[in-house]
Amino acid sequence: MEFMVPGLEELSTSERIQLVQDLWDSIARDPASVPVTEAQKVELSRRLEAYAVDRDPGEDWAVVRERFRGQG
What is the 3-state secondary structure (H, E, C) of 14-63? Predict the structure, then answer.
């Protein structure tokens, strides 16, 4: 499905990014309206159970971000 907003291509890249951020923020204000599939619920349960067993939170976001920045 392709949905085009009239005039969208006339916006700069930064304006389109801001539009996406604003759209996402409007969705995030009501998280209950975002459907969660059964597969996503199963995966979330699996991850919570794994965390309960070993309590390993993984790597800090700042460490991961720097690793990816170093690859560019």
Answer: HHHHHHHHHHHHHHHCCHHHCCCCHHHHHHHHHHHHHHHHHCCCCCCHHH
Q: How far apart are CA 68 and CA 72, in angstroms?
A: 7
Q: Is residue 40 in a domain? A: yes
Question: What are the pLDDT tens digits along the chain (72 aa)?
Answer: 777 888 988 999 999 999 999 999 999 999 898 899 999 999 999 999 999 998 887 889 999 999 999 886
The length of the chain in residues reads 72
pTM to 2 decimal places: 0.48
Please check whether residue 50 lies inside any domain of the structure: yes
Provide the domain count of the chain: 1
